[in-house]
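Possible race condition, two jobs.
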Amino acid sequence: MPRVPESHLAARRDQILDAATARFAANGFQATGMADVIAASGLSAGAVYRYFRSKDELIAAIVERVVGEAAGRFEVLLHDDVPDPATAVATAVQMVADVAARGPVDLTRVAVQAWGESLRNPPVHAAVERAYRTMRGFFVEVARRNQAAGRLPADADPVHLGATMLSSVIGFLVQRLLLGDVDPAAYGRAVQVAWGGAPVPGA
């Protein structure tokens, strides 16, 4: 039997993840079962279960997919420069806004649902914890580089500085979904004022 190309396998996996993301965003994790995902994907049950044995695996894969994209953007940001905290937070906020607007599914809705699911579901908690530790790690690196450059106090704890930066991004995400009146550009300018960094590009 001819070997299935990796590109075909990756496309099929993405097809399933796209279907699952759409159903989770619309109805939540609890109200969405594997049968719903299978129906939305247009594939057979056997095809879906070949890639994902359970809903928990699907949720974990979606979380890691989104964080992987964000991690790639942060790696580019940190590759040649030392962004000040305000720029790092504003960049992350714009990433959130971009993901939300990319459509047809607002992935930030899935992210918030994943937080709640992680509190009762250990496998999902493990995936969410890995994701947010990765994101916090980028902000910790921003803090360390700014300390080395003399922009932040050398005796401050970089882990907690990074946690504070991440909290600013999470705060934007939550307020955007719950209140709907938070503009990413204006939020970025406010972060610049709060952190006292360099002017935010494009602001």
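Job #2 (started ~2 s after job #1):
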Amino acid sequence: MTPITEVEGRRLTLSNLDKALYTASASASGFTKGEMLHYYASTAEALLAHLRNRPVSFLRFPDGPDGQRFFAKNVPPGTPDWVQTADVPRSDGNSRQILVNDLPTLMWAANLVTEFHTPQWQADAPALADRLVLDLDPGDPATIVECCRAGLWLRERLQADGLDVYAKTSGSKGLHLLCHLEPTPSEQVTAYAKELAKEAEAALPDLVVHRMTRSLRPRKVFVDFSQNAAAKTTATPYTLRARQEPTVSTPVTWEEVEGVKERGDPADLVFLAADIAPRLQRHGDLLAPLTDPDQARPLPRKPRKPRP
């Protein structure tokens, strides 16, 4: 029998709660769909702060990370009428996407087995970015250790331009750097981020590459600035990822980033679903300033030239 539950007055049908999604999990039964739903419910306050008012794209993996995966942007068939949606401009015409603004919607969406991905702008201001993101992606055999080295350099450069910088793991292999901006056209943010990436490559030629060309990326960190484009999305803080284990895109302290750079152990920045509640208890939401309008900073016209 399919369980029906009530969440803040909304009736939800939850399915296949005993289904093992992450079979590589340490648990004998794997990490089940029921455990996934419990994870999203227990981290809802922090997660919803970063989902709120942002059109969501879903990476669905209903049979676990080893099964079929598909990316979904449009409102899926059968969406309850109480789920909020928003018009999203696209090059081929407007579409409608889900807004995950409350706990019932979060649990409904999580029941579809999803990663959550969001743009750097909000639904009522399309293509006006209030976040800058740099996605640091290591090319084998480089790891997140090299991302930490590059991230610390980029942090100093962004701080020199008057921006506050926060970090989270991608939940996969890399590191994301984020800054809270006063609303700025996405193309301007992308251009600024590209200049920073090029400057990082010039300063750290043995470590950083700013172009996506696969042949350039082995042993280096690709600084992906393109996720600032209005049409692009990034893994939302606290989302589970479709990996072999239930890894989470996790906010981290700069002390943790420094520690990994010094110790050289990538495992120190791997966080599973079970790690997040204790971290939230200990640190709170390390990315909370990204949701506080008073913490927004203006985007510089262009990166300042490094000091000689």
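The longest strand covers residues 128-138.
Logs attached separately.
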